[in-house]
Amino acid sequence: MHISNSTTADIAEIFRLYESATAFQKTRYTLHWPKFESSLVETEINENRQWKITIDGKTACVWATTFDDPQIWEEKNADPSVYIHRIATNPEFKGQNMVAQIVAWAKEYAKANGKTYVRLDTVGPNEGLINHYTKMGFEFLGLYDLKNTDELPAHYHGNPVSLFELLVK
């Protein structure tokens, strides 16, 4: 297993994994990811904020990070944090607990970058994800109605978000 930044050569695979994750979400939930703009992923790649886990030469999982997430975290954005977005696991690697690998990596990444928290969110009251993230060590902070979602992807508009944080020790 190897964690590294995604490159422009990974864009097609990233979107394939997003489409796979969205298809899965549609089978279980009323809220699901919209189609993301390629410019979003291209910017993350250019800023070294798009990541991947590779196993035996295959992309097992992708996600994005940022150190600034004011529209979702509002006043809590002032806390030094790493924010994780859009975790998408390759179906070939389901059940291999990629989130645990990401969490272990994110704790070290946060420490190396002088951050106090690892944070993530999910749209809506998704009990499965709430249970999964709390088992990974995150504290579930509750459901919040965001004040301004203008610059956020469509699935955030008019929907509450579940917020999670993990104190880096």
From TrEMBL:
<dbReference type="GO" id="GO:0016747">
    <property type="term" value="F:acyltransferase activity, transferring groups other than amino-acyl groups"/>
</dbReference>
<protein>
    <submittedName>
        <fullName>GNAT family N-acetyltransferase</fullName>
    </submittedName>
</protein>
<dbReference type="InterPro" id="IPR000182">
    <property type="entry name" value="GNAT_dom"/>
</dbReference>
<keyword id="KW-0808">Transferase</keyword>
<dbReference type="InterPro" id="IPR016181">
    <property type="entry name" value="Acyl_CoA_acyltransferase"/>
</dbReference>
<feature type="domain" description="N-acetyltransferase">
    <location>
        <begin position="1"/>
        <end position="168"/>
    </location>
</feature>
<dbReference type="Pfam" id="PF00583">
    <property type="entry name" value="Acetyltransf_1"/>
</dbReference>
